[in-house]
Design the sequence.
DNA sequence: CTGGGGAAGGGGCCC
DNA sequence: GGGGCCCCTTCCCCA
């Protein structure tokens, strides 16, 4: 006969003991904050602690101290609360750090829930995007502003994914016991499962589309296939960690001040052997790969290569980018002909020696000789429709990307530019204030 | 088949 | 934390 409430009461009792610091035999030091816990509970919950404590238990039967600098005390609070309650308090703000910490601690279930949470958030973003794109294809210039809300919205706390019915409080994912066994939600259709696209697949997709179709409409957003998110979900939580991913483990008894660094999920070695100050600074580990970065913002940026999120669409051609600077670079190169180099002979051209050729949404420069050789000097020279070619300058942020209405219509109509070349005179001295500038959709 | 060039994309880091 | 620049690698196209 099995009494189902026993597990719950047992966990409850252990949690109570933890709060009252009863029988706690393990101290976890996170950025100066001390957490008390029971070794057996940590051992049973985390592959990392299992490894650590099995090692230290050989050395001592007394209390153990583990020191972490890889995540914040707040993050560890979420982890530890989960260990002792089965409730994981995820929000859009903490999910990345929690997942990173869970990866660190080799807590498979937590990682899975975080992934589901993120995927759910992305799905919300996708829905918003779909809704956004279905509203209007013409009102593009104003939509860029809204889109940032859409993308960021998916990560907000209020966008928390649906959780188990047994979860007592909103925004908390229940794990453990029956609640966890029932936790198997897939928020939307299979489309969501295909949302994630591996880097390679995604790139192939986008390149083919842009090259073969010339224009990548919003509806051409890559249909994300099975991703690293999915792939990694199948991996054990204790996947290989890089050498940089290291934490100090201090054993208080036999070697009071001799620390151990814990890397690669299995090795315990004296701290002094490999820990350097530089490695201490590298503290944000990607939960999907072995990459470690110093700044949280860099991790956030890096994660886009796993999630496939591309919040920055080029307004001229529709191609989407994961980073604003890539969009800017793309725009300058492809649509603004910023390079003062003849595309054919590679010679430097000036406003006197060369002209800009517009080929669909693409622009590049040709010297007068190459223009004549190409036999396209008879193509109409449309000075009226000339768009500025100035490289965007600082302090001109608002105006530099503005896309003249005439050009807009040009761009939208002409997709296969091979039959519609427009030559423009190069005039870098033109007054910027009067320029009609091409403007990508910057958030 | 191969090498060069262009474009995309990722990381580091400064402001 | 975001924006942006620089550097590097990878991929693809083309001669």
Sequence:
């Amino acid at each position: 006969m099995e009494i189902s409430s026993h597990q719950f009461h047992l966990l409850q009792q252990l949690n109570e003991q933890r709060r009252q610091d009863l029988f706690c035999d393990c101290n976890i030091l996170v950025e100066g904050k001390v957490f008390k816990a029971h070794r057996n509970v940590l051992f049973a919950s985390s592959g990392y602690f299992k490894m650590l404590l099995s090692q230290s238990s050989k050395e001592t039967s007394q209390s153990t101290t583990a020191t972490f600098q890889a995540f914040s005390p707040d993050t560890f609070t979420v982890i530890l609360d989960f260990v002792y309650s089965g409730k994981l308090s995820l929000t859009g703000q903490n999910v990345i750090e929690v997942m990173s910490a869970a990866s660190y601690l080799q807590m498979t279930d937590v990682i899975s829930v975080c992934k589901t949470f993120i995927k759910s958030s992305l799905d919300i973003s996708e829905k918003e995007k779909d809704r956004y794109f279905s509203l209007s294809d013409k009102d593009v210039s104003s939509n860029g502003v809204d889109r940032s809300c859409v993308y960021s919205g998916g990560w907000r706390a209020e966008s928390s994914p649906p959780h188990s019915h047994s979860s007592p409080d909103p925004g908390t994912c229940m794990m453990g016991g029956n609640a966890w066994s029932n936790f198997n939600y897939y928020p939307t259709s299979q489309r969501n499962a295909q949302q994630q696209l591996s880097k390679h697949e995604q790139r192939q997709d986008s390149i083919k589309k842009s090259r073969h179709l010339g224009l990548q409409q919003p509806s051409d957003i890559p249909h994300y296939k099975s991703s690293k998110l999915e792939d990694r979900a199948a991996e054990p939580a204790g996947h290989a960690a890089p050498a940089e991913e290291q934490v100090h483990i201090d054993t208080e008894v036999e070697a009071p001040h001799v620390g151990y660094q814990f890397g690669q999920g299995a090795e315990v070695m004296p701290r002094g052997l490999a820990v350097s100050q530089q490695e201490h600074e590298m503290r944000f580990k990607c939960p999907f790969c072995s990459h470690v970065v110093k700044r949280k913002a860099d991790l956030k940026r890096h994660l886009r290569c796993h999630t496939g999120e591309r919040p920055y669409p080029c307004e001229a051609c529709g191609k989407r980018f994961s980073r604003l600077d890539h969009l800017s670079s793309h725009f300058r190169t492809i649509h603004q002909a910023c390079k003062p180099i003849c595309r054919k002979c590679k010679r430097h051209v000036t406003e006197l020696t060369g002209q800009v050729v517009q080929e669909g949404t693409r622009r590049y420069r040709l010297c007068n000789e190459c223009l004549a050789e190409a036999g396209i000097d008879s193509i109409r020279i449309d000075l009226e429709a000339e768009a500025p070619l100035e490289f965007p300058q600082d302090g001109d942020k608002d105006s530099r990307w503005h896309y003249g209405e005439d050009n807009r219509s040009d761009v939208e109509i002409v997709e296969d530019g091979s039959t519609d070349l427009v030559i423009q005179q190069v005039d870098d001295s033109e007054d910027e204030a009067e320029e009609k500038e091409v403007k990508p959709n910057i958030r």
About this structure: The first strand of chain A starts at residue 26 and ends at 30. Residues 338-375 of chain A form a domain with the Wheat Germ Agglutinin (Isolectin 2); domain 1 fold (CATH 3.30.60). Confidence is low (pLDDT under 50) at residues 128-282, 377-420, 427-443 of chain A. Residues 200, 203-204, 207, 211, 295-297, 300-301, 323-325, 328-329, 394 of chain A lie near DNA strand C (CB under 10 Å from a C1').
